[in-house]
Amino acid sequence: MPQTMSELELVKEAVLLACRAPSVHNSQPWRWVSEGGGLHLYVDRTRWVHNTDHSGREALISCGAVLDHLRVAMAATGWQAHIKRFPNSDNIDHLASVEFTLRELVTDVDRNRAEAGSSANAGSRRW
User: DSSP states of 55-75 as a string?
Assistant: First the structure.
């Protein structure tokens, strides 16, 4: 994805929307890093609720939810997310790398999914 200012703002807004995803005990155990024209998702062990999630399974499920919310938000704005899961075998906290390409078509279904994910939140951006 080219890094023009408007595209960076679009990605920032999509990440903010994605971070409204449900997470175990509302812990939001994820960390996003923007690098090289893409995004990287990491599990944030400092936000992992170790007392109730001994194995980290629920933290990983929460990270999967935020990743899917990002994919949906970007699809509604005309971008296809290309996700590579566990891209770095030397870093188990690096859960995904995401790069974006333009889509030819944005459907009403794409927009409705994004709105469904944000409709329960006051002040959400309408895609």
Answer: TSHHHHHHHHHHHHHHHHHHH
Predicted local distance difference test score (pLDDT) of residue 117: 65
> What are the distances in angstroms from CA 77 to CA 3, 39, 118?
16, 17, 14
pLDDT digits (tens, 9 = 90+) for 30-76: 999 998 889 999 999 999 898 999 999 999 999 999 999 999 999 99
| Number of domains comprising the chain | 1
Write out the residue range of the structural domain in which residue 63 sits: 5-117
Residue 113 has pLDDT above 90, yes or no: no
Half-sphere exposure of 12 (CA within 13 A, CB side): 7
| CATH number of the domain residue 72 falls in | 3.40.109.10
Q: Is residue 126 part of a domain?
A: no
pLDDT at 119 over 70: no
Rg for the chain, CA atoms, rounded: 15
**Are the CB atoms for 26 and 85 separated by under 8 Å?**
no
